[in-house]
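Reopening this ticket.

The earlier resolution said the output was attached, but the attachment link was broken on my side. Pasting everything inline this time so it's all in one place.
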Amino acid sequence: MPKGAVLHLHYDCCIDREWFLNEICPKKTSYFNPQTRWFKFFAKPEEAEKGFISIPEYMKKEPNWKECVCNGIQLTKEEMFAENIWPSFEEKIYKVDSLILHKENAISYLTKTFENFIEDGIQHIEGRGLLESIFGDDLKPLPIEEEVACF
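Inline output:
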């Protein structure tokens, strides 16, 4: 039976955990900072900022890599039931945006998000996003026409 609608959705906060672990983490352009639990896209290894390690490398040397990575993208029970969830929620979004909003990742992410909604019987979505948030290999925002085409 259809569930109806999602009436308020920030398009960058619907990360499917398994999709992220299986599709994004293995990419050589996916980087993670284990200290801060921030994620970033770097087109080339020499561009990686201090503290960031390629996730494929991290997967090889850290036996608990999935847990560490997931702690960067998922709210804890304490955070979910906090009086004010917004600061924790916003922090998780910011931590992953500079990885999933790379054009190639963003298209894959949006496709997976919509597939999940279809599977769940969602018929209407009011999505909210900020223009000039999807970026290219040069880390610069895409031209508006190119960004809109990603949706």
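Reporter confirms the inline version is readable. The longest helix spans residues 103-119. The longest strand covers residues 4-10.
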